[in-house]
Amino acid sequence: MIKDNKVTYDFEKIDEYEDIKRKGFQFFLKRIMDITLSIIGIVILLPVFALISIAIKLDSKGPVIFKQSRVGKNNKNFKIFKFRTMRQNAHKEQKLEIENIHEFVFQSGEDPRITKVGKFLRKTSLDEIPQLFNVLIGNMSLVGPRPEITEVVEHYPQEYKQRLLVLPGITGLAQISGRGEIELGKTIYYDLKYIKNFSVFYDIKILFNTIFSVLRKEGAR
């Protein structure tokens, strides 16, 4: 349970059998949708991939694609793909200070390590589109809880670990409810609510809302 502005949030209790295994056919359809839409997205966005790659190379030294270890389904680590938005090796300078896991906010809009092109990519969420390859591979879904870094997961209380019961996603209920600007406690609340109420129709609804949120730049950093 968390409290935010005098509002109490009760974390959903996920029953792995009732809420997940009984929805096996829904998850099968979800995987079919993930494969189909990720292939279509990759093909359509190839020119965008090329333009962004050129812009990153002209703006700063370093690789076009940033790879980082994240925690996925069943607490298994995988490499997430993103367009690089920071100067080369900037992630090595990162020092996480987690005093209160419930109020932790990972992103910072004033991070001096972010490049000029990177700032634009983050604001438009275009830095996330290489994750379509993660979806195609099968270690991510289009919709689900955002994959967390190991250092943060190590601080998870037991109720937070329920978000690791499903594949992480490019977008999710938490992202359309605030994107990068809400604290972890509220993010978990939305993630568990999504898992509890999951359906393919729910995914489609979140995908459409994601498009509108990005276009309105809600919560963009």
Description:
- With 221 residues, the chain is an alpha+beta fold.
- It has one domain.
- It has helices at 16-20, 24-44, 46-59, 116-124, 131-137, 150-153, 173-176, 184-196, 200-215, and strands spanning 2-4, 7-9, 65-71, 77-83, 141-143, 169-171.
- The strands form 3 sheets. A two-stranded antiparallel ribbon has the order 1-2.
- The mean pLDDT is 87.
What descriptors fit this protein?
221 residues, two-stranded antiparallel ribbon, 9 helices, single chain, alpha+beta
Number of helices: 9
Q: What order do the SSEs take from the amino end to the carboxyl end, as H and E?
A: EEHHHEEHHEHEHHH
Characterize the quaternary organization of these chains: single chain
User: Percent helix among the residues?
Assistant: 40-55%
**SS-based class:** alpha+beta
GO cellular component, one term: membrane
Membrane topology: Multi-pass membrane protein
Main location: membrane
Organism: Oceanirhabdus seepicola
